Amino acid sequence: SVEKAIGKLMSHHITVVTISGNVKEKTADACKYSPSNIPGVITVAASSINMLPDRVQDIVSPVTAGGACVDLFAPGTNITSVSPYCKKCFAIKTGSSMAAPYVAGSVALLLERCPELKPWEAKHILLSEATVKNIINFNAFSKNLQSITPNLLLNLNDICNINCI
Questions:
Q1: Do 44 and 20 touch, CB atoms closer than 8 A?
Q2: Are 2 and 10 in contact (CB under 8 A)?
Q3: Both ends of the chain: CA-CA distance in Å?
Q4: pTM
């Protein structure tokens, strides 16, 4: 099973990054899906931006799941990605599957600097370096999900300057 495979990876000190889920429901809870509900994985939800007259506002992507199993948000709307249609083609995609690679890349940067980090240590560093709470507008979520979803946005500013534990 997926759960068993991820458990084995983590027992070998491999950090696992997963998506919260791409669902177009205001009540979509990542804790109802695997592998986002497996303890110890880093579960990523997608953020988007709202261009206001006086500022740019981070918002929840309309196709991402929320809930207590989400660890943090990363950019996941209108991301340039590969296309399955030809070797030189690209596509613009949206969802937590576009956000998770940002976090996986951040983990790679951390592990390059501190190769002995255990999965829980990498997760702790990412969460402690994330932006201040309440930066993301959660209006796309139900009131229940708004109250239980961590309001943290991936912050890469200091990742390469982290001192190893």
A1: yes
A2: no
A3: 33
A4: 0.92
